[in-house]
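Task card 7
Instruction: Convert sequence to structure tokens.
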Amino acid sequence: MAAHQQNLPTRTTGGSTNDDDAVPDIDTTETSGLLQERLQAYKHACGYLENYITATEKVQHAHAKEYEKVLKTVSDPLKEGQHFDQSLGGIAGLFENIRSNTKGIANSHLETEKTIKGSVLPILERLHAEIKNKSKELSKGAVKGSKEVDKARNATQKQIELLGQHTAAAASSGGRVDPANDPYVLQRGVNHRLNKQVLEENNNRHDLIEVQNSFAKFEAHVIQTFQQALQTFFQSVGGQHERQKAMYGDIVSTAQKIPLDFEFKGFVHRNSQLLVDPSAPKREVSHISFPNQNHASTQPLIAGTLERKSRGMAALKGFSTNYYVVTPSKFLHEFKDDDDLRKDPTPELSLYLPDCTIGAVDGVKFNIKGKDASKGKVSSAMAMSHELSFKAHTPADAERWYSVIKQVAGGSATYTDSVSSPTSPVDSRDVSGQQQPPQYQEKNVAPVQTQGLSQGQSAGSAGPMSAGGQPYNTPVSGGGLQSAGPGSTPTSGIERKPGQY
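Output:
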């Protein structure tokens, strides 16, 4: 027996079990597999008893030598024996007691054989069927839930790897990324999948706890059935020799002394690292961390609600409120709201600000002209530019949004007086993509030429001069260049007076 104890297999577990990990490195099927294996152990134990009593029934008419066959049915160690406490007082001790007492049984008679066949075996056969049904119930319930958890964890892991890939790209090169691959959007996608994963994990955890709790009652029922079967068996052989009666009585006494929770307590103690702790708190998304969480590229430069005027026929409805974010990737994203959990947060509109023209602020309003890049590269390339009107809650909010957008867009914003109406992006830049005329500080403006001007010309209308005394080509309002010849009056292309731009 000591040699058997030394060679019993043990179950070990590896990997991380930290509840703060987004995707714990633990096999969710281990718990359900362990419980399934335990049912198999009890099924085999029940089979051992059935074999034992069946063999006893068959050799009741035989001589004492035939009882060696009975002994053989229980001579081998219990299958999955590591599930039973090897000390005295448990299931393993019960079978050891059966082996020693069976040696002293020599004879039986036919009436005892009939009694055993009609009263004892049916009890164990029903128990055997109950254990099989319990095993099927576990396979359909907890095992299936564990597979759903693994599926949800795989989806979360893929999204986290995608986030890591694009945050690394954004941090190393600072280049342009697709709207769908914006680290801010990818992190919100991680939150969405992580929430779904945690729901699956908590549901599976709840199922496993219920199964574990039911196991204690079921095992008590199994042991009670063992006791009942053995008690009936003992009564059937009551007419046999006193020595046989004493031996069977010793078997029953050993079984009756097994506390109903003795085996299960030992089982929990030996496998505490694999079983679910009912007292442990449930997982929460707010307590979970994952790689590149809160990376600089995932933090918005500015975020909040703005009102935007609808396009096309929907413009009759006026302004509608949405949630907007300016990201370090230079996108202005529009979302229905800032909820990451209810659905996968996909931008309704994405504007790459360096490719947009920014209108000036008028009170709480400002305009942006650009292409919607949220539909992918091909659709974005074929899309037409639209002028979008935005409205903030207060003038201060409008200035704050305008300042951030202007900085992200590379200073391509149009400046006008605060009392003027919003400037259309169409008027602030040539449709061919030509930049606005350079603006000169007052201290750098060339001396105004006043000699040789015809009547009606003012000093303020003369354009900047070149180093050779020739006037520069001066931009006109249409966006082209107008040559300032000797017979024409050069214009600056800017309506403000010197020193105001």
